[in-house]
Amino acid sequence: MLVLLWLFLQLKKTTHSLPKLVRFLNVLMLSWIVVELCVFLAFRSYLDKELKKTVAIKGCENCAKPDVYLLILDEYAGQQTLTDKFHFDNREFLSHLRSKNFHIVSNSKSNYNLTLFSMASMLSLDNLTITNHERPATKDFILAGLKLNESAIGRFFRDNGYEIFNLSLFRFLDLPSHFQHPYVRNFSDELKARTLTSLFPKVYREVFSSNNEGDRTDINSLDLTYNNALLNFFQDSSLKTSKPKFVYAHFLMPHFPHLLDDNGQLVDAKMQYSQDSYLGYLKYCNKKITTVIDKILSSSRTPPIILLMSDHGFRGFSTPTDPKYYFMNLNAVYLPDQNYDGWYDGMSNVNQFRILLNEKFHQNLSLLRDTSIRLMGNNF
Questions:
Q1: How far, in Å, CA of 63 to CA of 342, rounded?
Q2: What pLDDT score does 208 carry?
Q3: I want to staple 330 with a disulfide (CB 3.0 to 4.6 A). Which of 47, 59, 141, 310 is the partner?
């Protein structure tokens, strides 16, 4: 800033027109504009080409149209993780689900260990194009966000007369999230974030914004407010409509920060990002999601379809751990006729809706290979 101020004062005092300097700066600026325009157009072309790679799903006008609920519990660990790493038997919660005629998929896993990529893959019914698994680029995140927004599964339900409720962290079918949270992102807007006018405020915030315990406390309270608002939304029966509905809800639990223990009491702030506090928050999550499930089943006009899943497994281990545990997740399915023949042991999230559409909406989609790809790390 001092150098810029000095240059400004020198230019103000000079009586020369400085034609060479002006010409140089004009040429330089025009060159930058041309280069940046070419980069942006190439990026936009890449996104358009990738977004055209969608799964073809036939219409189903004569199908039964039960309400469909996709309930995501962020970072909910699979049973093997809970047994091996936490020495905890989740039998009570799973038994309650089974008593409600849920089917628990054994050894289920996510395809990615990051929420955005996992959800984009599941809802687009496909694997994602990622330029670098060890460090995904900005364009990978933007493409994943746009694929989630324009997802094949969302368009299928919308085109078949379903009303869409977006209770997630992402823009879905151009519907904004019903709740506000810093995690909520609009990836269409992020295309503009590559311009100088957007980059400068971003860099300014990163350099000059404080990152103290008070800021973290604010984020934690937002998590709690978000989860409570989402839980209350279901309990207040705010999903009334004359149409069949597709509900995509994303709970920020038992994902860190592990704000509450199993009795709903606040956990010490120093422990909220610890592996030791995860199990208490998971037990609390069990209690709360049980009330949501019971409410859905008791208030639905016709027996619904419920997919209770986690986007990925637990990742916050305090010691080096086999990355396979990052993908072990929860997958519990409720169908009105309790026919779960299509759901097989060891399946991954990308096949969840492929199976559902085949079994209940007369599709003939082939299943994909069940792979798990660790982003920011090795490929499994």
A1: 18
A2: 67
A3: 310
